[in-house]
Amino acid sequence: MSGIFPKIEIDSGKLGPKGLIISGVHGDEYEPVVAILELQSSLRKVLTKGALTLIPVVNQNAFFRKSRTGEDDKDLARSCPGIANGTLTDKVAYQISNLIIESDFLIDMHTGGTFFDIYPLAGYMLHPDADILTTQRAMAKAFNLPITWGTNPELEGRTLSVARDANKPAIYTEYGGGRYNPHAISELVDGCLNILSYFGMLSEEGHKPSMVKYEVEDYRKSSGHLQIMYPSPKDGIFLTKATLGNPIQKGELIGEVYDLNGENNNKIVAEEDGLVFLLRTIPSVKAGEALAGILPISQPGRVHIK
Ligand SMILES: [Zn+2]
Predict the structure, then answer these.
(1) Which CATH number is 31's domain given?
(2) How many helices (H) and strands (E) does the chain have?
(3) pTM higher than 0.90 for the full model?
(4) Residue 280 is part of a domain; what is its CATH number?
(5) How many domains does the chain have?
(6) Does some domain include residue 2?
(7) What is the pLDDT of residues 160-182, one digit of tens each?
(8) 143 CA distance to ligand 1 centroid (A)?
(9) How many angstroms does the Cα of residue 154 sit away from the middle of ligand 1?
């Protein structure tokens, strides 16, 4: 079967790990795509061990629709490990899953897409294998965004679920969304380089001071599932009052959903103390769609949630 997505292969010609760096699993997330395109030119000079496969846009059909999903409306991040002769998204899921299984580690970069803005974080599954968990923690930390976030390992359908089942260390990142943000690019490029450095694949070691402020491990069942956070109580227009990356206290206002008939508005308040890490950027909202996400952390440092 021919590849559905274009791949960039970089081989140092020396023994070493085989890494896979991907973005564009969702078609409306752009900064990581540019980061991978920038990464490939610098890597050709500095990669001294192992080999890399870079895929700037995994989900091309969704990308050219400017949409999270492709024409069959299936979410690629819920369709792995895929079906060889299924719908378009099933096929893409199948091919990317096979690449993950053949690789030694995975970095999968995302943004909040058209609808959400996300405070930068590097996430991983709380893998049952202690060695893999240790590597994933180290990768997330090396990526050097303000939050590292370990979540429930039982979620299915993701690229990370495929990596989990194949015992391959993997992280994903979230950074921004909504309006295109060129400032994200260099941080994403540096993050990938830091991980390659961690695996000993680069000639130069980066020694940048750590930007990680919050190291969160959340063992609760639904942790890591963004779409169920603060669902809108009704159809209407959402106006946010909270600020991304800021602390918020239980009872404080996140925003308000107004009826379009002007009759009443619903105040959306924080149900727990924490950090506002996800905010809806598109005011139009249907009942049940996510408005915001709060991480249950209130101060910098390590947080462990059972
Ligand atoms: Zn995404």
Answers:
(1) 3.40.630.10
(2) 6, 16
(3) yes
(4) 2.40.50.100
(5) 2
(6) no
(7) 999 999 999 999 999 999 989 99
(8) 17
(9) 18
CA 26–ligand 1 middle distance (angstroms): 5
Q: Which domain holds residue 63?
A: 8-218
Kindly give the distance from the C-alpha atom of residue 131 to the centroid of ligand 1, in angstroms, as a whole number.
Answer: 27
Residues 226/290, Cβ–Cβ less than 8 Å: yes
Question: For residue 209, is the peptide bond before it cis, meaning its omega torsion is within 30 degrees of 0?
Answer: no
Q: Which helix (H) or strand (E) holds 44?
A: helix 31-46
Say how many Å lie between the CA of residue 265 and the centre of ligand 1. Answer: 30
Separation of CA 25 and ligand 1 centre (Å): 6
pLDDT tens string 33-92: 999 999 998 898 899 999 999 999 999 999 999 999 999 999 999 999 999 999 999 999
Residue 32, in any domain of the structure: yes
Q: Report yes or no on 1 lying in a domain.
A: no
Find, among 293, 285, 295, the residue nearest to 233 by Cα: 285
Q: Which two tokens stand for residue 26?
A: 């969702």
Q: How far is the CA of 257 from the centre of ligand 1 (A)?
A: 25
| Claim to verify: residue 13 and residue 138 sit in the same structural domain | yes
Residue 166 covered by a domain = yes
246 CA distance to ligand 1 centroid (A)?
22
Q: Could you identify the residue written with the tokens 């679920």?
A: 161
Q: Is 174 helix (H, G, I), strand (E, B) or coil?
A: strand
- Is the backbone of residue 156 left (phi > 0), alpha (psi -120 to 50) or beta? beta
Distance 167 CA to ligand 1 centre (A): 22
Measured in angstroms, how far is the CA atom of residue 113 from the centroid of ligand 1? 6
